[in-house]
Amino acid sequence: MRKWAFSTIAVAALCYAVPALANDDVVKLTSDPNNWAIQSGDYAGHRYSKLDQINTDNVGQLKVAWTFSTGVLRGHEGGPLVIGDTMYITTPFPNTVIALDLAHDQKIIWKYTPKQDPSVIPVMCCDTVNRGVQYAEGKIFLHQADNGLVALDAKTGKELWKAMVDDAKKGATGTGAPIVAKDKVIVGVSGGEFGVRCHLDAYDINTGKLVWRAYSMGPDKDILVDPEKTMSLGKPVGKDSSLKTWNGDQWKIGGGATWGYMSYDPELNLIYYGSGNPSTWNAAQRAGPDGKPIDQKWSTSYFARDVDTGIAKWIYQMTPFDEWDYDGINENIQAELEINGVKHKTISHWDRNGFGYTWDRVTGEPLVAEKFDPKVNWAEKIDLDKSSPTYGRPVRVKKYSTFANGTDFNTKGICPAALGSKDQQPASYSELTGLFYVPTNHVCMDYEPFKVSYTAGQPYVGATLSMYPAPGGDDMGNFIAWDGAKGKIVWSDPEKFSVWSGALTTAGGVAFYGTLEGYFKAVDQKTGKELFKFKTPSGIIGNAMTYAHDGKQYVAVYSGVGGWAGIGLAAGLTNPTDGLGAVGGYAGLSQYTELGGSLTVFSLP
Question: Quick one: residue 448, left, alpha or beta (phi over 0 = left, psi -120 to 50 = alpha)?
Fold first, then answer.
């Protein structure tokens, strides 16, 4: 049934055309720095605010203005939105949405708690997180854990429509933040660890009807590519670009999750997003019929898609034949950078595989690809020589190949670990300095693949992992300033645990982020010097944001330890290899923080 429905939708999408009203609304709201009207701050994903009342001279004077308990104890990723006098808060499962009146002592205007079967919790890979709601034209859009995509009346909380993105009984779940572009709300799906063939969907914001669906792998008509016009590394992808790189029907349970933060370029009418790892984690079970590696396109890839039709303009695969769970879902940030004397419209992306990429966002050409953690060892470099037969691909180190070493062999000392040199925690781009501010992990692993069979709705992982700090010290994270044009670290602030919180930069010259122990920090964008630190009630994996109300600037962040790094605390796990290897690596976290779920808001006295 799905194939028939999709082919009809794909044809309809090619001639679909309506006014770009939601685009206009979002652009208008995000252009006012008093609001925080989209999870990423703006369509470009900058997470930068023009507010400068709080600056490097006075940020050390910040005080807690008010707090709010969410009533939920699991990991709090994402952040609140502020539109005028109203703040919108989202919780982990059960994904309650709360509207607060900022003009009247943060009074609760309305609260919406979706009805969901709690059986979805065990199939949520790495905690019951939700990365936030989005707003457009008087509607709040929520992607629920059970795959329900809901539109709510922003004034009343009344449910306007609901669409089901996928089936939780197969292992598909909803954790990502949607994005609204033109008349469409676009949303992805999780489930790579359950053998779900994942996809990106576009729904009509007024009716909830599916406009187009683009799978990460499969036939051309399913993945929405034009064999002659969709480009990769400067060449057309060709017919069956995905099918040719899978063994038999393995693509039908191929993974390629799409839950990361997206950006949108209204001028080019392109949506940018990444896909996750191929299923299973045991690469030997994904080898070609001759027993040799094959790419598994288009998992671990970056896409630029036309918003109206869903057709991909270009695709770039970061980690072909992924052997380490190096998802490519991390956010991208748009900028205009001068590289080798030429100015480009760019997107920059810090991949789980440990390389920071800068692409030309018009063509998909890789311009920069360098390690943003010096300890990365699975590959020597990314080959950017256009005349090379391995152009655009990583130059791998055989010693750390889990495939070459074989099933049931424990490959030790791989850097980074499966959760990457960076995971979901979004970076920020400062329009003041032209630098990117990136929360990172400094973690390595041992990785032992084993044979696993596929059963719908059951874990389809096939590897046992152990994680630990990278060699040379006990620190498991860094907060870095990154030059996207040169691919170099400008400065780096070490942290005891991974920096799992999203960054914020402002016109006041300050960069904000949180730590897994629960500290909310402010540092100087130019030097990395710490200017402010406050211990919140629980570990921070949420994203810092800022807004202004009645002429006063506020900075806010969720605290609530969890996510993949904090899954041991969040889910009460103690076996070191549980949580896909994270429990042992972050065992010491329990000495520094405890469960909680709250919003902390700061302002100057």
Answer: beta
Which run of H or E residues covers position 497? none
Q: 477 pairs with which residues across the strands?
A: 441, 495
Those residues with Cβ within 8 angstroms of residue 440's Cβ, 6 or more apart along the chain or in another chain: 350, 372, 373, 421, 422, 477, 478, 479, 480, 498, 499
DSSP 3-state of 177 = coil
Quick one: pLDDT band at residue 406, thresholds 50, 70, 90? very high
- Distant-in-sequence, close-in-space partners of 585: CB < 8 Å, separation ≥ 6: 417, 443, 445, 466, 467, 468, 469, 476, 565, 576
State the pLDDT confidence band at 22, using cuts at 50, 70 and 90: low
b/e map of 185-205 (b: 16 or more CB within 10 Å)? bbbbbbbbbbbbbbbbbbbbb
183 a catalytic residue: no
Render pLDDT for 183-214 as a digit per residue (tens, 0 to 9): 999 999 999 999 999 999 999 999 999 999 99
Choosing from 325, 327, 351, 493, the catalytic residue is: 325
Say what the pLDDT of residue 125 is: 87
> Is the distance from CB of 178 to CB of 185 less than 8 angstroms?
yes
- Helix runs in 99-209, H state only: none
Banded model confidence at residue 19, pLDDT cuts 50, 70, 90: very low
- Cite the beta strand spans of 419-498 per DSSP E: 428-429, 436-441, 443-449, 463-469, 477-483, 488-495
**Dist. CA 594–CA 590, nearest whole Å:** 7
Q: What length is written for the chain?
A: 605
Q: Which tens digits make up the pLDDT trace of 210-233?
A: 999 999 999 999 999 999 999 999
**Of 496, 524, 490, 513, nearest in space to 585 by CA:** 496
Q: How far apart are CA 583 and CA 448, in angstroms?
A: 16
The C-alpha atoms of residue 71 and residue 295 are separated, in whole angstroms, by: 44
Q: What is d(CA 37, CA 239) in angstroms, rounded to the nearest whole number?
A: 41
